[in-house]
């Protein structure tokens, strides 16, 4: 019972292009192409693998792009067991010029009812020996909006702890099934509870079914509400870099904290430090290990009254 | 001796994305993704196959993108026999918004000396039963600049007719080996002979070794110089549409004219009509067959004095 299972239902082949200058409505020569296995659960798996944890990545992959994602994950040394789908896994293209980055997000593949059935069966099999399941990211077209709720309930029946990191309807429906931890970011939380401030919105997520909520708020750190306490965890400094994947590093740290039963303040400090170390690393799904070790003891975790939150 | 062999040494997986609005330095959601096997020789093969000709596409393909190109060609019904390389075949991404298109061209894969050896061996084998070889497009990194000259000489030793459609150094070196026909476009011709007008530059290509030259000039049609005559061929109307691939349709028509020994005026009329019909078709490598049949008898071909050209 020590494995962590990281689920990515809508993974991507992430392409990063560098150009001298991005000229709209012209032909741009790409100088370098970086290919990565992408998707939030895959980033979680890569961070945990790099930290020496035993993790398995699963989800749905299809076509030539799906095969490429599987090859890239294998090259990273991450254990993977994905269910094959008929459609092509999406790509994301990020074009980096000296000024900034331009993103192009392909739509996800449409999943058939049979493929979703096949995934649930594989998921049940994969839960053997798993302590914590991390459910991350958007749902591709064709999946029911309560897909995460289904996966949370299957895990709960098997006594496996669940961490849900999603937004929108996927988060709303998933929370109703009672995950052990929901980890929205501030934007996802506010979309769920418009008009509420962050503590009030987090409390609403608890009432909606989650047993604990950790809200990530970029360089401002984390807010955590559990059945027994509430904390803020703040990094000792603002780290410059690429924030993509910082939330996934946070989820990775929280997953191992859940597995180990680490006290909440330590668990949150670990998550803040690992997130900041991910910002400092050049690509999503990797962390700056030296920075992590330096920041870890310097994170400030303070309790706050839940009364003041509502 | 009836086959046409279409060579693409630097093919691509062509991706066409449609977006509502292309916003630079932001994330753009892609609505539709169109994947095509790309590259000039592949377009030539697709046009000839659609016209009922027996054609084989060859060249170099590698990695997941190369496998996808092979799958897409097979789905189009085009016979293909490519040599496998270790690196990934490049992609081209074209982002179409309501205003215009933005292109992103990946660099080609680097070809090893062993892969180039393997290609030459396969090419020799494939020449059995071939009447005309079409050599199209850019050379990927790693290939010698005189790669087309080598392929022209091998074909000539076997009595196989050659058509070279390229630019820059690939054209310059290739022409020196004496292809039966060189088909640069006006921009490629002018880059080869700066300061010359089109007829003078075409005459210089003849002197440099080509046995005939056909210069494509978009809606202005074709200029042809051969050892025995010179003609201009002009379409009866300007066709609106996508000019990408029109030059490849022109090369396809010229290749079948070379194979059949069609008199030059008829050959040029066919090439003008097929090019225009390619402009009217939505994607490169396809033609509007009805438009082709309507335009074919209406193309104007007029001789002109080579004396006036130099």
UniProtKB/TrEMBL annotation, chains A, B:
Gene Ontology MF annotations: ATP binding; phosphofructokinase activity
Signal peptide per UniProt: none
Matching Gene3D superfamilies: 3.40.1190.20
InterPro entries to which the protein is assigned, alphabetical: Carboh/pur_kinase_PfkB_CS, PfkB_dom, Ribokinase-like, Tagatose/fructose_Pkinase
Domain Carbohydrate kinase PfkB: 10-282
One Gene Ontology cellular component annotation held by this UniProt entry: cytosol
Domain of life where this protein originates: Bacteria
Keywords assigned by UniProt, alphabetized: ATP-binding, Kinase, Nucleotide-binding, Transferase
NCBIfam families: 1-PFK
Family, as annotated: Belongs to the carbohydrate kinase PfkB family.
Protein's name according to its UniProt entry: Sugar kinase
């Amino acid at each position: 019972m020590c494995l962590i299972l990281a689920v990515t239902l809508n993974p991507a082949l992430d392409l990063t292009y560098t150009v001298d200058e991005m000229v709209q409505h012209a032909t741009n020569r790409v100088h370098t192409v970086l290919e990565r296995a992408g998707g939030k659960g895959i980033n979680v798996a890569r961070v945990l693998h790099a930290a020496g944890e035993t993790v398995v990545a699963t989800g749905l992959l299809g076509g030539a792009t799906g095969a490429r994602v599987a090859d890239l994950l294998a090259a990273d040394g991450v254990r993977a067991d994905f269910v094959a789908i008929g459609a092509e896994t999406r790509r994301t293209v990020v074009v980096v010029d000296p000024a900034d980055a331009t993103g192009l997000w392909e739509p996800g593949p449409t999943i058939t009812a049979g493929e979703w059935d096949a995934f649930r069966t594989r998921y049940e099999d994969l839960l053997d020996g798993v302590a914590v399941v991390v459910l991350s990211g958007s749902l591709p077209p064709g999946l029911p909006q309560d897909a995460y709720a289904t996966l949370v309930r299957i895990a709960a029946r098997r006594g496996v702890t669940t961490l849900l990191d999603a937004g929108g309807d996927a988060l709303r429906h998933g929370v109703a099934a009672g995950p052990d931890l929901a980890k929205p970011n501030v934007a996802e939380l506010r979309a769920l509870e418009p008009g509420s401030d962050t503590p009030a919105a987090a409390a609403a997520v608890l009432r909606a079914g989650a047993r604990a909520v950790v809200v990530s708020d970029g360089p401002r750190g984390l807010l955590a509400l559990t059945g027994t306490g509430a904390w803020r965890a703040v990094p000792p400094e603002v780290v410059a870099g690429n924030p993509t994947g910082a939330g996934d590093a946070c989820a990775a740290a929280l997953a191992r904290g859940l597995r180990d039963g680490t006290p909440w303040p330590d668990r949150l400090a670990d998550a803040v430090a690992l997130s900041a170390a991910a910002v400092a690393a050049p690509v999503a799904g990797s962390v700056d290990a030296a920075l992590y070790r330096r920041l870890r003891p310097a994170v400030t975790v303070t309790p706050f009254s839940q009364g003041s939150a509502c």
